[in-house]
Design a protein that fits this description.
heterotrimer; A alpha+beta; B mainly alpha; C mainly alpha; B: mainly alpha; two-stranded antiparallel sheet; about 70% helix; globular; C: mainly alpha
Chain lengths: ~325, ~650, ~200
Amino acid sequence: MKKKLSLMFIAFGALAILTGCEPLTVFDTKGPNAKTLSDTIILSIITMAFILLVVYVLLVVMLTKYRASKTPADYEPPHEEGSHVLEIIWTVIPIIIVAFLAVVTVKTTSTVESQPEGYDNKEPLVIYASSSNWKWHFSYPEQGIETVNYVNMPIDRPIEFKLYSFGPITSFWIPQLAGQKYAMSDMLTTIHLAADDIGSFMGRNSNFSGRGFAEMEFEAQTMTQEDFDKWAADVKANEKPLTEEKFDELLKAEHVGRSSYSSTHLEFRPAPMEHSEHMKMGDMDHSDMDMSEDEMDHSKMNHEDHSQEKSEETHSH
Amino acid sequence: MSMEEIFHPLKEPMIMGAAISIIVGAVVIAVGLTYFKKWGYFYKNWLSTVDHKKIGIMYIATALLMLFRGGIDALLMRAQTAVPDNGLLDAQHYNEIFTTHGIIMILFMAMPFVIGLMNIVIPLQIGARDVAFPRLNAVSFWLFAAGCGLLNLSFIIGGSPDTGWTAYFPLAGTEFSPTVGNNYYSLALQLSGIGTLLTGVNFITTIIKMRAPGMTLMKMPMFSWSILITNVIIVFAFPVLTVALALMMLDRQFGTQFFAMQNGGMDMLWANLFWVWGHPEVYIVILPAFGIFSEIIATFARKNLYGYKSMVMSMVVISLLSFLVWAHHFYTMGHGVMVNSFFSITTMAIAVPTGVKIFNWLLTMRHGKIQFTTPMLYALGFIPIFTIGGVTGVMLAMSSADYQYHNTMFLVAHFHYVLIPGTVFGVLAGYHYWWPKMFGFRLNEKLGKAGFWFIAISFNVAFFPLFILGLDGYARRMYTYSESTGYGPLSMVSFIGAIGLAVGFALIVYNIYYSWKHMPRNEKADVWDGRTLEWATHSPVPEYNFAVVPTISRLDEFWFAKKEGRDITAGKIEKIHMPNNTGAPFWMSGFFFLAAFFAVFSLWTPAIISMLFVFGFMIHRSFEDDHGRYISVEEVMATEKSLRGDK
Amino acid sequence: MKIDSSLPLEYSTEENRLKIFGFWIFLGAEIMLFATLFTVYFTLHTRTGSGPNGAEIFELTPVLWETFLLLASSFTIGLGVHAMRLGNKKAMMTFFIITLLLGLGFLGIEIDEFVTYVHEGATIQTSAFLSALMTLLGTHGAHVTFGFFWGVAILIQVAKRGLNPQTANKAFIFSLYWHFLDVVWIFIFSFVYLKGLIS
């Protein structure tokens, strides 16, 4: 038993060392969103290590002190009903820990779900990232360009990814910059992030989506605003526009390499609309029995026709 | 569909091998039964039995078989990912294997193991002669077996489901999954799910209505409590699965639009329905394990369970919360801060009652006299390992942090850290603990302990690295990865652990053979010096369980009676009413199986004809005038004498 | 078999009491089944795609007839159980027959309703709304159909074997099932049809 416990501690030690020497991807953050999450994770690991320690110490004490070989042969264990004091202690302390973590969760969730702090005065760059089969399309409405399987972003400017899918649910994830989120066919989701450093980062779909899933990666490259503007202008000037036929061809393909276009598919194939929070809750609860009229209209519009005018209308969260 | 398409999985050499081994196995069993002239015995004593103990044994036998089927899947997965860019399996094969691994381990290994143990133990533990509806119990088992057989058949005919055990739409829809794999999914799970639902009805009635005189609910052993709560969860959760699977079938085979990408369909609805069932399902397989550990820790610490009332309360709270947390499986769906926070808090709240249980188990051992038997080792191994699963669960419950854990190996490590030390250790502990009650001889302790150490250590070797890999950005369900990711070395460690696990499980099965050959027979009824009623009757248990049903005045009555030198099974023997055996559940489920099999291939005419046979059996049952039979006093006395006399 | 004559026939043996209790649990599962179907319906009822919405296809008159027939059948089966408790086999059978006929009438109207929808181009494949609607209605209708055959089987047994603990128990459990279907229908009537017609 003890052997196993020490094994555990070695393993945990190994984790600590590993995180110390060569940071694991999730801890090797390059932007405020990922940094918030990394800090949250480390905080929770420390809290949990404390709980583990309590349980392990108690277990070791029980197993060493009260094993049959250590007690006299005629020892008869007493009848114990339980203790209210102890029960209150081990109910209240976990409640306090959980409450603490709950506060952290709510705070950090709202932090990463809004524009990164310190960038409040800057207009975010909106990039539409959509998945089809096993590839990613990135549309830059502001620059009027589109790329496939790679995304370039300026540093020091907040970025807003608008995610959706032309097929199975996928999950858009650049672990060093931000946490992941689903891309789905009938609802637009948003990731807020910003990059502090220049570099090339692994991005991928992390939600299983069929045969080509393992290879569904893209490169996320960050660069200075100047370089970014230069690149965007270059694409706009030198690449062919993305026609509807070309886009349909792209959608059908399974895996493709990188490519760039001087127009976006949003013009002829607009993204789905964003989702109101109520709809989501209402899915399973009975609360949508009293769904208000305007939401009903909204959801109807939302699904009646996919190719409606692109709408920026959102329900504020 | 052409013959070639139907049998396309057989082109794969490994699947061909699996198919051949299944067929050879079936032929060997059939030849063996014929050679030893055991068909009659087999049909009379097993296929047509309504005895809860035999049904329980059949459940456990199936579970062990499926443990190996799912285990081979697991080994193949770890082997494929042991080194970067491995070509052992292609993407399609890997996808089928992780899908069937999940389905089989949860629904055809953990569930039947738990249900098998509850079948064997519950009537004994509450002092009942049978379950409330013995025939329904046989129907439950055979429907489960039909579903299990159907899913395994998919491997050979038509292709297995390949979209994960969660089968998210639109991926699982016909557009992206045109093969019959997901038809197998919806129909096989539907069959076994109905069986499980009926089990739920049966055991709630049994536990509420058939307890021994004097055994109030708060004098009921903890395992019985856990099973009562589990079955309440089953009755409330499984209908959701029934509906979800029916809608899946309608979408795939009748062109409805529930989860479609057009005409108003909603892919997120499937995820919600699946997890509204799926999360309570996790507690369906974990709560019985908590019950088993409670019994075993009390028995081998030689002390009563600490904090009985809070143990009951905590289980009730867990069962209620289990219905309020489903959305934590998809925080990343973009619900917004409010919804995510709500589900984060409900999820983390589960840690509180679970913690109460852990501390109660620890305190049960205080002032005890701990004996390290095989079942106790599993219970003791459970505490430290499961706690890791529990605390990582709290970490995953934090919706913000989950954006980094979701869909990664961290999650995979977490739920294996919960399900293996929880459910698997639990059922293995129960299996070693109650084995003598089932068969009248013990399993060899040395082999049992060796098996435990192999499993406990290898488990950590296999799964701890996955936490680290997850934090390094390793997404789950990838059939391969490139060398530059650096996932290679730890994945190899994990593979080595998986081999160790396989050795451990092989030892457990070898122990059956070894103990059957070498262990002394005619063990006394109360091998472990137990506390609950199942130890008051003979091993193996006579058909009628108790010649005289004991009267109960307190928790652990049997334990106190032993100390006071009372025999609680003494009393006047009366004639005992028992149900008759019947082959109807077996044949009816057989036709159900045929109907589902034809439905997989959308062959509606034979499917409907098979269903007519099923209804025929139901009508026959309704008109049948079978009032069971009586075992005479003389017969009971003779059985009792022979069981007692041999000791 | 011990028979407790102080209790009504359907409760008189231990086995009977278990069966009634077990059936209540089963009805609990049925409630969850229909609750899930209702939830699916309410989630999808505005998602009509290019198909019609509820207000466009629902017709009040047949639905009112369906409601009337099913409510009446719930009343007559209550009378049937009352007659059974009084030991009046003939009255009991008459009321059960009326109940089943009312059930058949309900099914007839419902089938006609489905046929009308399909003629109007509103099939189960048209939109998520119609898929959900027809699955909900169809599941209820299938329950009524099953109940019809079940009721016939019980009537044959009562006719052949008279009222004894077994047949009384079956008839009583059947009445619980029938009442349950009525309750489900009231929800369908109010929240599917009335609400659909209003909006």
